[in-house]
Amino acid sequence: MATIVIDAGHGGYDAGAVNGTRFEKNDNLRMALAVGERLQKCGIKVVYTRTSDVFVPLLERSRISNNNNADLFVSFHRNSASNPIANGVETLVYINASNKALQAAEALQQALVNAGVQSNRGVKRVNLSVLRETNAPAILLELGFINNEQDNVLFDTQFNTYADVIAQSLAKSVGVNCGGSGNGDTTPNATIRNIQSTLNARYGAGLSVDGIWGPLSQKALIRALQIELNMNYGAGLIVDGIFGPRTKAAIRNLSQGSRGNLVWILQAGLFVKGFETTLDSIFGANTANQVRAFQTANGLIADGIAGTNTFEALMR
Ligand SMILES: [Zn+2]
């Protein structure tokens, strides 16, 4: 059985980086436990260096890994910088890292970039105790900056997506299939099935309800958007499932407080791009956060209002 040591950075009196009342040690532990739980479900032996808010010395973390003869050691951290503009995700390995560590780090970094991060800071070689003193291939993830507002929005709103792709990628690095492709792709998914069957029932889409989002499903979503724009605003669009200039021009802004089928289409579009929303047809605070996260990931102004540019990026 493959063994992965999951190391939540800092803990106890060592809060790590701090942003107001937000402590790095808590974010680290939350993500570490979420990833560990997923790995265990895939039949991987998970050893934690801590599962609560306690201080664990650095050498003790490496000793736990070495005593358990781990196949992989992963340390979870959040980054910080004096400049609040610094943002993005990076994965660290020891300066003399083994190929195995380097490959695991590259795969993890790519999986997170595919899932959507503010910026890709790449894999870096550093001389850190936990990486140096650990016998197993060891990597350290800096999952966004705790003093960057948008990185925190992404950490919070994409939490489950990140936990999924991290677990999938780590599992793959120790030769275990834990769902996905290990690079951020989606697997058959109950919510996607639900979206497909709603598109069939409400708009006669004729999709096979397989829980996998492909070009036909995306086209059906655009057709649904065109039908709703015609019904709600008399847009007079040809319902062809192609998001062209006329469809774009017919878009009206959706914002917090909006509700109805157009909001459902927005939520479905966000979900299939990996921005998990509840498909309740009500544009609430969570939908606004997901719109902002999506806008940031697509280089748009993160105003939380779904207008022409946001829909254009969503319907791509
Ligand atoms: Zn840290």
Topology readout:
Elements: E1 3-8, E2 18-19, E3 22-23, H1 24-41, E4 45-48, H2 58-67, E5 72-79, E6 89-94, H3 99-115, E7 120-126, H4 129-132, E8 138-145, H5 149-157, H6 159-173, H7 190-203, H8 215-233, H9 245-250, H10 261-272, H11 285-297, H12 308-314
Parallel strand pairs: 1-4, 1-5, 5-8, 6-7
Antiparallel strand pairs: 2-3, 6-8
Helix pairs in contact: 1-6, 3-6, 5-11, 7-8, 8-10
Write a structural description.
This protein has helices at 24-41, 58-67, 99-115, 129-132, 149-157, 159-173, 190-203, 215-233, 245-250, 261-272, 285-297, 308-314; strands at residues 3-8, 18-19, 22-23, 45-48, 72-79, 89-94, 120-126, 138-145. It has 316 residues and is α/β, with parallel strands linked by helices. The chain has two domains: 3-173, Zn-dependent exopeptidases (Aminopeptidase, 3-Layer(aba) Sandwich), CATH 3.40.630; 190-314, Orthogonal Bundle (Muramoyl-pentapeptide Carboxypeptidase, domain 1), CATH 1.10.101. A six-stranded mixed beta sheet has the order 4-1-5-8-6-7, with helices on both faces. It has a two-stranded antiparallel sheet with strand order 2-3. Strand 2 and strand 3 form a beta hairpin. The longest helix has 19 residues, at 215-233. The chain starts with a strand and ends with a helix. Mean pLDDT is 93; it is low at 181-186. The chain binds zinc ion. Zinc ion (ZN) binds next to loops. Zinc ion is lined by residues 9-10, 16, 24, 77.
